[in-house]
Amino acid sequence: MKKTYVVDTNVLIQAPYALKCFEDNDVVIPLVVVEELDGLKKSDGEKGANARAAVRLLEECRQRGDLLQGVELESGGMLQVEKNFVDVILPQDLPEDKPDNRILKVCKGLKEKLPKEQIILVTKDLVLRLKAQIIGIKAEDFTREQISEDDAQYTGRCEAYIPEDMVKDFKKKGVAVSAVYHTDEQGNKMPLELSENEFLILKADQSTKKTLLGRVCGNKILPLQYKKSKPYGVSPRNVGQYFIQEALMTSAQEAPLVIIKGMAGTAKTFYSLAVGMEKVYNNPNGEYRRIIVCRPNAQFDDDIGFLPGSEQEKIAPLMRPIIDNLEQILDSDEKSRYDDESLLNDKILEVFERGIIQTEALNYIRGRSIEKTYLIIDEAQNMMPNQAKGIITRAGKNTKIILLGDPNQIDKPFLDERTNGLSYAAKFMKGSPFCWQITLAAEECERSSLAMDAVKRL
User: What is the pTM of this model?
Assistant: First the structure.
């Protein structure tokens, strides 16, 4: 059965190329969607950029024919802007002046006009999908950027057994990937499918109390190089932190992209800042010029241009968690850290005044080429997939990009744990020799006993 997809504005705002993703099926854009794109095209940030990209794509099609009659797409289907069906009657509870309901009128009108075709509304809006079901219209999410459940389960780490007689070899020069294994329920040895840069907890098969930590590099598993490091005086407290320390301490030439996922309190931001301070503040080789910290926010990114004050004044509320972490890094003495608040504030102020750490709004990264920089994107789960792509492709020479976040804590409308930019980057960069990623476990929460208990219970 031929399908006709009616596309909502929010799909084009998140993925302006979506019109090319429906194979040889027909695509309909309600006129109200065109009007909404027109209203959004001057917006700041990602929303405005994507609206303009969608409008440009419509203009390319318009130049090839009459969009009201339909223009053939490269995929074989037809793209049409629909301005009719104004007389279609909706239930009284759905007022006609709302844009969402005008889209529903188009869907219902097409269903009555084309009874032999399947009419499908594509929208990121859960409520609109519910309304569509009420009037008998099939509705779907746009899933092109959605990762699979299997992809979501990848943690960048696993456990395996290593033959007892290879333990010494591993410590000296590593072992072949084929040497390690896991066991099935019957105790049979099974080979492991490992990805590049995946971390391993290796247990000697004759004495499981011997635990080794390693990383996949080509066809070998190598021991960690930075296991004994203490960046800015910070020592790893659990296996996950040993792994993230390895990824963060490794040079930008070997590990230019690091993706760290984990629940609240697992020290993602804290450890990333500690390593950054070690590399910029204490490293005489000048590995990085500076640390840049960006923190996406659901409401803030789109409205930054309308807020009063300088960029730094605008983003200051978002960066308070960064300052909280710096307080702990700059004064490691937990007992006396807050005895002299003025001195502690002066230390933090010095870091910013000297340009060691700079904070920027995410939408100001667009179009830049960032070189010799330690770039932290905190709360990266609130990025859209094309934002993640834009950030990663901004990496210049000797720049290290760190994406931090918890895919289960989404604040951005129309995103979820399988469609956000952090999960998207983790899926498509898996196995890349340039990407190291690790997911911290709930039991690796180090914020406080209460925080750990809450992570497990809530």
Answer: 0.84
